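testing teh design pipeline on a random one, pls ignore if ur not involved
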C-alpha cells in the first residue's frame, strides 16, 4: 500500500522529468514555471491513492494523474487573470510575470496537454475516464462563471455559494478519485459514486478552509496576500455568514467597513467584525459538516478500512493545514 507522501514524491519527480521546454519559448516557459511553483499535488495524489485502494498499479494511473494536475494549473492561470491576482504560491502569477495574452495562450496549451496525458491509459477504460473528466472540466467552468456573476449580483445565499464552490473546486477532486478508482479496477457503481462523493465533500471543506485562511491565515505560510477576499468584496462563506447574522448597528458597521476605500483599514475593520461575530467558528462548523459527510461516503466503500487509511490521512491533513 502506497502512502500519501510516497505518491506526492512520485508525482513531483515525474513532473520534473517532463519536458515542456519546446518552442516557442514564450508559450512553454510559463507552463514549466507554473508547474514548478509546487502545491500539494492533491488531485493527482487522490488519483494514485484511489487506484492503489483497488489494488491497481499506480504507474498506470500516473500519466492521467499528471493530466489532472496540468488541467488544475491551467484553471489557476486563467483564474488569476480574471481575479487580477498578483501572487500565487508566494510567487508572481503568470500574467504578472509575462503578460495577459501569454498567460491565456499558455493556459490553453495546458488544457490540450491535460488531454494528452489523460489519454495515456488503457484504451478499454479511456471513454469512461474522458467522460468523467469532461463532466468535471465543464462544471469547473460553470463554477468560475458563477463566481464572476457573484461579484456584481445581490442577494447571494449561502447555498448559492456552496454550489458555486462545489462546481469550481470540489467536483475535480471527486473526478480525480473516480478516475483513479476506474484505472485501479473498480467495477461497483455504488463504490464509484461514494469515492466521488468523498472527494466532492472534502473539496467543499477544503475551499471553506481556503476562505478561512485568506482572512485568518499566516500570509507567508498561505502564499497569498492576507485579506485579499475582503479587499475585493468577494462573497465568501465568511462574508455571507457575517451579513446573515449581523443585526442593527453591527450590520451597518459591517456594511460601512466593506465600503471603506482604504484597503488596510478595510481589511482590519472587517477582521475585527468577523472576530466579534465569531465567524471563524461558524466556518469551522460548516467545514466539519462536509468533512464528516466525506468520511461517511468513504466508510460506505466496500473495501477493508485498512486500505482507506491514506485517504483518511489526506482528508485530515486538508482540515488541519495552514497553507
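output:
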Amino acid at each position: 500500500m502506497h502512502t500519501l507522501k510516497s505518491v506526492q514524491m512520485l508525482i513531483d519527480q515525474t513532473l520534473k522529468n517532463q519536458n515542456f521546454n519546446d518552442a516557442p519559448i514564450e508559450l512553454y516557459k510559463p507552463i514549466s514555471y507554473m508547474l514548478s511553483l509546487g502545491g500539494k499535488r492533491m488531485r493527482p495524489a487522490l488519483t494514485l491513492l484511489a487506484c492503489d485502494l483497488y489494488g491497481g498499479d499506480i504507474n498506470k494511473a500516473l500519466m492521467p494523474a499528471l493530466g489532472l494536475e496540468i488541467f488544475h494549473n491551467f484553471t489557476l492561470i486563467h483564474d488569476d487573470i480574471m481575479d487580477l491576482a498578483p501572487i500565487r504560491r508566494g510567487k508572481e502569477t503568470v500574467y504578472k510575470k509575462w503578460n495577459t495574452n501569454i498567460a491565456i495562450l499558455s493556459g490553453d496549451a495546458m488544457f490540450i496537454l491535460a488531454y494528452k496525458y489523460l489519454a495515456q491509459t488503457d484504451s478499454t477504460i479511456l471513454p469512461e475516464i474522458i467522460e468523467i473528466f469532461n463532466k468535471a472540466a465543464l462544471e469547473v467552468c460553470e463554477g468560475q462563471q458563477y463566481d464572476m456573476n457573484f461579484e456584481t449580483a445581490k442577494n447571494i445565499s449561502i447555498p448559492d455559494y456552496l454550489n458555486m464552490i462545489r462546481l469550481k473546486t470540489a467536483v475535480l477532486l471527486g473526478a480525480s478519485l473516480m478516475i483513479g478508482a476506474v484505472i485501479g479496477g473498480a467495477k461497483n457503481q455504488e463504490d464509484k459514486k461514494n469515492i466521488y462523493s468523498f472527494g466532492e465533500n472534502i473539496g467543499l471543506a477544503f475551499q471553506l478552509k481556503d476562505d478561512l485562511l485568506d482572512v485568518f491565515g499566516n500570509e507567508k505560510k498561505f502564499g497569498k496576500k492576507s485579506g485579499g477576499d475582503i479587499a475585493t468584496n468577494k462573497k465568501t462563506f465568511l462574508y455571507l455568514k457575517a451579513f446573515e447574522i449581523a443585526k442593527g448597528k453591527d450590520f451597518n458597521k459591517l456594511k460601512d467597513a466593506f465600503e471603506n476605500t482604504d484597503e488596510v483599514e478595510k481589511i482590519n475593520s472587517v477582521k475585527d467584525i468577523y472576530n466579534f461575530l465569531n465567524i471563524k467558528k461558524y466556518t469551522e462548523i460548516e467545514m466539519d459538516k462536509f468533512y464528516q459527510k466525506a468520511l461517511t461516503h468513504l466508510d460506505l466503500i466496500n473495501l477493508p478500512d485498512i486500505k482507506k487509511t491514506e485517504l483518511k490521512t489526506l482528508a485530515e491533513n486538508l482540515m488541519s493545514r495552514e497553507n
